[in-house]
Amino acid sequence: MAALQRRLAEFAAARDWQPYHTPKNLVSALSVEASELVEIFQWLTPEESARVMSDPETAHRVMDEVADVLAYLLQLCEVLGIDPLSALDAKIDRNERRFPAPGRP
User: Which of 9, 10, 74, 77 is most exposed by smallest CB count within 10 Å?
Assistant: First the structure.
């Protein structure tokens, strides 16, 4: 994860994009990319959506949009000093306490 964040930072630095990589701009870009991912699935039935990766062209589009979402999320974490894996781990811990599995305290 850290290596990908470094690679993204180097990519942006080589193009002098850092001034534009503010938290606000990165969150906006993340939202746009997530919406582009939603668009692929928008009118599919649940069954069609489960088979989306079986069509090579659609699978390629899905993978590209997932990559874009992840790239902007990692860049946002870098700018804000968030360790995304630690944040996720902590969130799962909180959710386990908030929503215990049935039959467990």
Answer: 10
